[in-house]
Design a protein that fits this description.
By secondary structure, this protein is an alpha/beta fold. The protein has 16 helices and 9 strands. Bound molecules: adenine. The site of adenine has 11 residues, from α8 and α10.
């Protein structure tokens, strides 16, 4: 599979800028994510329908010589929302400022960022569903009319000051679109959901990443990793690194199907891509709650994870893989879950429906 030109340049730039890249450890994960991040629509694999509509929106905005409408991306974590925002900035030829809602705690945090924006720039706010009410209300006129409404003085002497802002594009990202307030959601002109990746797409992501990192990998090796990556490129990229370590230490450095499977077994990532946390969650529901339903708080306390991690990180894939179901009375598993985890006593669908 070919590595696209911009990746080669990127790789070269990275090595020139940082010749001792191999010695890095502390900041490695962050740098790793940044250096494998695609910069163009061509090198951004997957989400093809979304890419096509974005290309049109970008071309139209450029023709009008106006910033792009505010955009909201939602979907499970690790599917490339931040990466896509970076690609959009690159295509628009503008800078991007990246922040996340929990970092915008005080009014001055959001005001400071808005006032620092230059014309046409993109402001990316991750986890935008976690924005507090005050920050949200500052954002409304900024998004709608590109102004900051500031109040000064107290009670009778209170004055409202309108400060103009340059025209900018807000890109919001969230794993929980349902938790966004109606008024905030309504202010986004373009709203898109990111989908889980297919095995083919993940194999291409893996091959591309391996190419950038100078890791030799066979097509079968890439597919073996793709199969266990839960439809998520961030996981695929992490696994490439882990498997590459294994290939280097135990073999000659090349990732083959056998080596990939061997190392993923050692990492206890099964052929559905489930790890120990996923399995203990599902086993708990089966063994202690007879298949469910059981409340999320009870599950979280029993397996020692917090509710948010379970909801945001574990559940989206388990739900989509049909291994977990959400009901008004809690979570329950499916007959497929029993089968996958090797239980002989599979509850029949009829029994499940009695709940
Ligand atoms: N790395 C993470 N997400 C990616 C994507 N969508 N395409 C290529 N490489 C990626």
């Amino acid at each position: 599979m070919s590595i696209i030109a911009d990746d080669d340049n990127f790789k070269k730039a990275r090595v020139e800028k940082n010749p001792v890249i191999k010695a890095e450890t502390i900041e490695f994960d962050k740098n790793f994510e940044n250096c494998i991040r695609p910069k163009t629509f061509d090198s951004y694999i997957g989400q093809s329908a979304l890419k096509e509509t974005l290309k049109i929106s970008i071309a139209a905005a450029k023709k009008r010589e106006l910033p792009l409408d505010h955009l909201l991306f939602y979907g499970p974590p690790g599917l490339g929302k931040t990466t896509l925002a970076g690609v959009i900035a690159e295509q628009m030829g503008v800078d991007i400022k990246i922040t996340s809602a929990p970092a915008l705690e005080r009014p001055r945090d959001i005001i400071g960022i808005l006032m620092s924006l230059k014309g046409g720039e993109i402001l990316f706010i991750d986890e935008i569903h976690r924005l507090n009410k005050v920050a949200e209300e500052i954002l409304y006129p900024a998004m709608e009319d590109f102004v900051l409404d500031m109040t000064t003085g107290k009670s009778q002497t209170v004055k409202t000051l309108r400060i103009p802002l340059p025209k900018f594009t807000l890109i919001g990202a969230t794993t929980k679109a349902g938790e966004l307030s109606g008024p905030l959601r309504d202010r986004f002109g373009i709203i898109h959901r990111l989908e889980f990746y297919t095995e083919d797409e993940l194999a291409r992501v893996i091959t591309r990443t391996a190419g950038i990192l100078d890791i030799e990998i066979t097509e079968e090796g890439a597919y073996a990793i793709a199969k266990r990556s839960r439809g998520t490129p961030r996981i695929a990229n992490r696994l490439v690194k882990r498997v590459a370590d294994f290939a280097l230490v135990k073999h000659d450095g090349k990732i083959t199907e056998t080596i990939a499977n061997e190392s993923l077994d050692i990492l206890k990532i099964d052929n559905f891509g489930l790890d120990n946390t996923d399995r203990s969650l599902l086993k708990l529901i089966i063994e202690k709650y007879d298949g469910g339903p059981v409340g999320i708080e009870t599950i979280a306390a029993a397996i020692g994870e917090d509710v948010r991690t379970i909801e945001d990180v574990c559940e989206p894939y388990l739900l989509q893989a049909g291994l977990l179901q959400r009901t008004p009375r809690g979570r329950k598993v499916s007959p497929e879950t029993y089968r996958h985890l090797g239980y002989k006593n599979i509850k029949t669908i009829d029994q499940q429906n009695l709940f």
